[in-house]
Amino acid sequence: MPGIEKLPLEEALEDSPQTRSLLGVFEEDTAAISNYCTQLYQAMQRIYDAQNELSAATHLTSRLLKEYDKQRFPLGGDDEVMSSTLQQFAKVIDELSSCHAVLSTQLADAMMFPITQFKERDLKELLTLKEVFQISSDDHDTAINRYSRLSKRRDNDKVRAEAVEDVYTSRKKQHQTMMHYFCSLNTLQYKKKTALLEPLLGYMQAQISFFKLGSENLSQQWEDFLGTIGTSVQNVRREMEEEVGQMQQTIQQMERSCDPLYAPCDPDPAHSPVCRNLTRKQGYLYIRNKTGLVSSSWERQYFFTQGGNLMQQGRAEVAGGLVTDLDNCSVMAVDSDDRRFCFQVTSFDGKKVVTLQAESRRDCEEWIATINNISKRIYLSENAEEVAARVNQTALEAVTPSPSFQQRHESMRPSSKGRSGRASSISSVGSEPSPALSALSFDALVAPETPIQFDIISPVSEENSGQNKAAAQAGRRSNPFGESGQDAPEDPEDSILHQLFIVRFLGSMEVRAAESADVISETMRQILAARAIHNIFRMTESHLLVTCDCLKLIDPQTQVTRLRFPLCSVVQSSSHQDNKRLFGFVLQTAGGREDSRAVCYIFESNNDGEKICDSIGLAKQIAFHSEIDRRALEKRKEQDKAKEKQAEELSKQKQIEKDLEEQSRLIAASSRPANPPAADGQVFLLSSSQSEDSDVGEEGKKRGSS
Predict the structure, then answer these.
(1) Burial of 495 by CB count in 10 Å (0-12 exposed, 13-18 middle, 19+ buried)?
(2) Are 610 and 582 spatial neighbours (Cβ–Cβ below 8 Å)?
(3) What is residue 317's DSSP assignment?
(4) From CA 9, how far away is CA 299, in angstroms rounded?
(5) How far apart are CA 686 and CA 581, in angstroms?
(6) Is 287 helix (H, G, I), strand (E, B) or coil?
């Protein structure tokens, strides 16, 4: 017998579109078998009914022939020859009627019973299993959708545990139902052969036994042929029983081994570590589709990588469709308001962004690592996984801390050919080093063994430390991001420049040559290399506010200032030579000559790197001219104040001179002789003016004495 097509029980848990497509083929085959079996059953039923009718008709004929003697024919007389002949015919036909009755019984047992059992038991059992499988599949989809909609903000352990238990139960039920359904479909491929051959075999054997009395030679020929067919049927039945036993063992083994895989979360990270050397991956993911300006919906699709392309395929689809090109793309983990384990794939030109959600953190990291390997075109080489492992190991050694980058460079590439390889590895991450950078040592730009900060951390300065100490002494809570709360100077509302940009923080590290033109590009190279090697794709998104006084990093959700960089401390800023989305700036912290240090901050924007650098330069120019205008205004105010002070002194001096003149006049008036008394003893009365002059003279004397 030819090979039997089977459904793979091992792929029942994955439930891929290919498996569903193959399942659809088996279901179509089952429907065709059912239709054909129904028609064959109707035909055999007609044979059986006809045989019963023939047996009844033969018996009726025999009975009628026996009753010939009892008939009274008007024109016929007693004919003993005719009567005896008819009696012989009646005896033969009666024997034939008995044979037909036996044939009907044999047809009922050997022909109608097998096909009736196949039609009423096996096919109906398949229909019932199909309905149960459809119900379990719908329950699993409902459970996984409920689990995927768990809110990240309102994380409830009880709700999450219930969702995980629901997913576990529904997935286990779907897996078991699917395996039993697959087993029944595989068994049907054997049963359809026996269901067709056994009725025919019973029909032919009944016919042979019916004609065996008169045709020994014919029966001998048919017995040999039917014996061969009977042997084949027995072999098929025996093979079917062995296959059913193996499938039952496989089902039991799969149920035991796949029990940890029913849960959607990672069962044991140590037992199943993340594989970062993959160049091909497939599985179900959720994709976010925009349904409006601000609204979006999530759809569960089957995704797989094909060469350098990311494909998706629905359950009812025959082939997959292209989602995006993965060559030279960028991938990173992102935070979503309503979903967990999300990552984002951006095409090389930045025009297409795809947001996907994995089922677990391990699955999310494996997808990110796989897409990152494909973006480097490692899949084009032979033994892609070995090449990916070697590339990752080489890159890991390249960013391993050492006394200096130059020593590591010389130890890894002692020859001139090795130096060119080092330059090519640098250019693969960032731009090509300039002649100034090649002449300048790496240690002159970046301090050796400098740690890289991948999270937003406030720069440490004496001012911030003093503010934190003052806050601690006052019993107030200090800001972990280095802000001083009410003591920090707020930006003026009437600032000339206010520009807001969306940026993502990549990292920061301390540098030595703050004013060097290549320090930012070298910092970009080291931070990007460290992120690629350690598979750090998570970035913190913020809003960068550029004003004439400072640069602010603001949380887009809470509008809280994460970091504040005074504009006077920004030494320089520039964007990447090739990738314009990358930019950075060098911040010189406050302090003395020995205490001050320079830190380079690297960010990624949405194709606005040069624009942000131009905005920072414009802000510095505006701040410079504003400082000049402020100094001129202060100088003018000081001149006006000096003039007012001089005028006030002149007015005081004039008042003093006037007072002195008045005092001198009063003194002169008081120094006149008094009027002599009259001879006749009369007294001269002073006029009112004279009395007033005298009073004024007294006051003048007192004032002069004082």
Answers:
(1) middle
(2) no
(3) -
(4) 27
(5) 103
(6) strand
pLDDT (mean) for 62-70: 84
What string of DSSP letters covers 120-185? IIIHHHHHHHHHHHHHHHHHHHHHHHHHHT--SSS--HHHHHHHHHHHHHHHHHHHHHHHHHHHHH
End-to-end CA distance of the chain: 143
Q: Tell me the CB-side half-sphere exposure of residue 279, using CA atoms within 13 A.
A: 22
203, 204, 140, 205: which is closest to 175 by C-alpha? Answer: 140
CA distance 378 to 389: 10
Please state the three-class secondary structure of 389-426 as a single string.
HHHHHHHHHHCCCCCCHHHHHHHHCCCHHHHHHHHHHH
pTM of the model: 0.44
* Domains of the chain with bracketed CATH: 17-71+78-151+160-217 (1.20.1270.60), 282-395 (2.30.29.30), 498-625 (2.30.29.30)
| CA-based nearest residue to 265, from 171, 396, 333 | 171
Mean pLDDT, range 466-484, rounded to an integer: 42
With contact defined as beta carbons under 8 Å apart, do 625 and 560 qualify?
no
Alpha helix stretches (DSSP H) within 303-454: 361-375, 384-398, 405-412, 416-429, 435-439, 442-445
Of the candidates 297, 304, 348, 357, the one whose C-alpha atom is nearest the C-alpha of residue 326 is 348
Grade residue 83 by pLDDT with cuts at 50, 70 and 90. confident
- Asked if 651 and 599 touch (Cβ cutoff 8 Å), the reply is no
Identify the CA nearest to 230 among candidates 381, 146, 110: 110
User: What is the C-alpha to C-alpha distance for residues 312 and 300, in angstroms, rounded to an integer?
Assistant: 10
Q: The tokens of 267 are what?
A: 């069962």
Tokens of 236: 């098929």
Integer Cα distance of 693 and 701 in angstroms:
12
For 657, the token pair is 């001179």
- Residue 585, C-beta contacts closer than 8 angstroms, at least 6 positions apart: 520, 551, 565, 570, 571, 572, 573, 574, 600, 601, 613, 616
State the angle between helix axes of 157-211 and 216-257 in degrees (0 to 180), rounded to the nearest 10.
Answer: 170
Radius of gyration of the chain (CA): 51
Cβ contacts of 552 within 8 Å, gap of 6 or more: 491, 544, 545, 561, 563, 564, 565
User: Which tokens in the block code for residue 223?
Assistant: 């017995």
Task: Give the integer Cα–Cα distance in Å for 89 and 70.
Answer: 16
pLDDT at 445: 63
What is each CA distance from 194 to 5, 38, 48, 71, 520, in whole angstroms? 16, 15, 20, 52, 78
Any residues with CB less than 8 A from the CB of 443 and at least 6 apart, and which? 404, 405, 406, 512
Kindly state the DSSP code that residue 453 receives in the 8-state scheme: B
Residue 267 banded pLDDT, cuts 50, 70, 90? low
Cβ(364)–Cβ(341) below 8 Å = yes
One-letter amino acid for residue 66 of the chain: K
Do 499 and 615 form a contact (C-beta atoms < 8 A)? Answer: yes
- Best CA proximity match to 603, nearest among 588, 616, 620: 616
- Residue 570 backbone phi and psi in degrees, to 5: -80, 115
Structure tokens at 344: 């984002």
Do residues 520 and 579 touch, judged by C-beta distance below 8 A?
no
Residue 223: pLDDT band (50, 70, 90) is low
d(CA 297, CA 241) in angstroms, rounded, equals: 49
Backbone angles phi, psi at 394, to 5 degrees: -65, -45
